[in-house]
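Board notes, transcribed. Complex of a protein with acetyl coenzyme *A.
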Amino acid sequence: MSKVAKLELDSKVYEFPIVVGSEDEHSLDISTLRSKTGYITLDEGYGNTGSCLSNITFIDGEKGILRYRGIPIEELAEKSTFVETAYLIIYGKLPNSQEIKDFSSLLTKNEMLHEDMKFHFEGFPTHAHPMAILSSMINAAGCFLPEVLNPDEVFLTQAARLLSQVRTIAAFSYRKSLGLPIIYPKPIYKYTANFLHMMFSEPYEDYELQPEVVNALDLIFLLHADHEQNCSTSTVRMVASSQANLFASAAAGVCALWGPLHGGANQAVLEMLEDIHKSGDNGSRFIEAAKDKTSGKRLMGFGHRIYKNYDPRARIIKKKCDELLAVLKRKDPLLDIAKRLEEGALSDPYFIDRKLYPNVDFYSGIIMRAIGIPLSMYTVMFAIGRMPGWIANFKEIHDAKDSRIYRPRQVYTGRTLTHYTPFRERV
Ligand code: ACO
C-alpha cells in the first residue's frame, strides 16, 4: 500500500498520498487539500513546492548532481554536443546516427528567418537590450508560421525552427545593434559554428572558426540546456498551461531569464569583476560588502536555490576557462579576480554557513569574453542554450492528458470590504 501523510487540522485528521520520484524524492500530494479542508498552502518563492511531475532533468542540490534524462552532465560535457544533447532533452533518448542526421538537417532547413522579419529588427533603437529584441522576435517569428497554432501536428518541426532560429535572431540583433550588415547562416556549418559565423563574419571576409572556440561555446550551450523548474522554465510551463503556442511560451521564458537573479547574472558577474578590477580591490573589500545586507551588493554568480554544494556546471566551466585561455595564449585579470573571490568566499563563514557556492554564471562570462561575445549578449547565450529545456517542458505540458491551467492561489492581506466614496468626501 502506498504511504500517506496525516494532517491534523481543527481536530480532524486528513490523509494525503506521498508521491515518491524515481530518485526517491518524497513529496506530499496536496491536490485535494482545499477541497477536503478549506485550507491552501503558503509558500512564497515556491521553495517547498513541486509544481509538476517531470521526467526531463534530475538535480540533487545537496550532492551537486545534475542529469539530463538520467545522464550525468559531466558525461555529456565530455562526450556529447549541444545538438545531440538538445535531441536527448526534447526526444527523451540519445539519437542513433540516422536520427541525429535527420535532426541536424531539420535544424539547417529551418535556420533562415522570413525575409520580412528584417523589418522588425529595424524598429528597435540601437541601444535596445538584445534580450528585449530576442523575446520580441521569437514571438514575431511565431506570427510568420500559421501552423504554429496547431502544435499537435507539427510540434517537432516547430521545435526545430525555434531551436535553429533563436541563434539567427540573436546574431541578427547583435549585428543590428552595431549597424553592421546581416550575415546569413551557411548550411555547411554545424549549429555553434554557424552562430559564430553569423555573429562575426563580414560580407567581404569569413570569420576564422577555431575549433577550441567553437567547442567552448558549444559546451556553454550544452551546460545550460535544461535545469528543471527554475524561474524561466516555470514561466514557460505557466504560459504553455494556458495552451499558448510554443513561440509565445519561449518568448515569455526569455523575459523571465533576463533578470540578474537568474540568467542575467552572467552579465552582472562580469560587470562586478570589471568594477573590482577598476577599483584595485583584490576582492576582499567586495566580499565584505556582499556580506553586508545594507550595501545592496551580492556576490553575483554565487548561491543557488537548489544547489547547496558546488554547481557541477560551474566546475566544468572553470576548467574550460583555463583550457581556452591557454589555447588562445591569453591572460585575463578578471579570471584571477574570480578565482580569488571564490577562494575568499569558500573560506568565509558567511558563505560556508549559508552553503553559497559558485553557480553556472560565475565563470561562463570569462569564456564568452575570450570568444569576443559582447557583454550585453551573455544572457542571450544562456537563452540559446536553454531552448531545448523550454521546448521539452512545453511538450510535457502539452502531452499531459490531465494538464490543467497553472493558477496558484493567494492569501489576501488587503482591506476588507470598503465602499466607493465620491471625490468631495475623500480626504
Ligand atoms: N551573495 C551574498 N549573500 C547571498 C548570496 C550572494 N550571492 N546569495 C544568497 N545570499 C544570502 C542571502 O542574503 C540569505 O542570507 P540570510 O539567510 O542571512 O538572509 C541567504 O544567503 C539565502 O539566500 P536567498 O536569497 O534566500 O536564496 P534564494 O534561494 O532565494 O536565492 C539566488 C538564490 C537568487 C540565486 C541568490 O543566491 C542570489 O541572489 N545569487 C546571486 C545572483 C545569481 O548568481 N543568480 C544566478 C543563479 S543561477 C541561475 O539562475 C542560472
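Residues 45, 230, 261-263, 265, 290, 298-305, 354, 356, 359-361 surround acetyl coenzyme *A (CB under 6 Å). The chain is about 50% helix and 5% strand.
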